[in-house]
Fold this protein.
Amino acid sequence: TSDGRRIYDGYLTTAKAAYPNYVEEMVGMSKGADVPFEHLFLLNYTEEILLLMDKNEKEGEFKGCTTVFLNYRDGPRLLAHNEDGPTFEQGCLLVAHVEPYELPGGKVLPEENFVSFCYSGLLAGVAYSYNCHGLCLTYNTLTMTEAEENKLGIVLSCRALLSATSPEEAMAMMKADGVGMAIGDSLNITSTRDSTKRMYSVETVSAVGQATTTVSVYTVEPADRGTDGHFYHYNLYEHHRMSEVPLSPSSVHRKARALEMKAPRVKADVLAFLGDTDDPEYPIYRY
C-alpha cells in the first residue's frame, strides 16, 4: 500500500543516515539467507510496524524475560537474566569480530568484538550480550501504545549499543538525539570496568514530535552487607511513568512471586529465583 511504502521508506532512510554500517549488515544477512532485503528489514522493524497498524500480536502469547540485579560492594555483583523469547524463534549465540567501517564522509568506526544471543533474521543486541569493553547488557521488551514514523527502530538501536565502551556512552546512544526512537524499550546495563560498580535499569519512551527520546535511569548502587542490594526488571515500565500495552499477565505474576520469595543476597538466591516454577500458569522459569 502507499502507507506501507511511506512507512518503510521513512524507516530505511533514517536507518541509513544514523547507522549505515548496520544497514549494510542487514544487506549481508539477506544475501546469506537468500531472502529479499525488504523482508529482512521489515522483520527488524516488526514491533514498530505492528504498533503503527494498531496491532499487538504478542499480547497473551509473549511471556517475556526476567532480569535480576544483585550489587553488593564486596560482592557478589551479578546481572542475571532469563531469556524467554517466543519458543518458535530459534536463537543462537553469536561471537563476533567486526572489522573497522569507513563512513561515506571518511570517518572510520573502530572494530567491534562482542558475544550476543541472537534470534533468526534479527541484528544482534536484542537479548543478553557483552563486549570487549566490559559492557554487559540484557534486554526486556516493553510495548507502548503507539509508534513514531521516520525514527530509529529498537533492533537497530540495540545493535549499535554493542559498540559502546561504557554505560554512559550506551545511555547517550539510547537517547538518539537528532532523530529519536520510534518506540520505547528497556536495557539493563553494567560494566566490569566501571570503578563505581553501579548498575543501571534504563527505560525509554519515544518523544512524540521531537527528535530525541525520553530516558529514565534507575541506578542500582553498590550496597553494604545487610542492606538491600537487588532490583528486578520484567516486561513492564518500572520507573518511567507512561501508558503501555501489557504483553501478557506474566510480568504481574512474576512480580508477585518475587515478593513471596526472600530477597537475594548471594548467587544461589538469584539462581533459585530465576529457576522458580511455583506459579503453574506463569512461572519465572519456563524453558
Q: What stands out?
A: The two ends are 39 Å apart (CA to CA). Helices lie at 2-18, 20-33, 37-43, 46-52, 154-161, 167-175, 250-260, 267-274. Residues 211 and 282 are 38 Å apart (CA to CA).
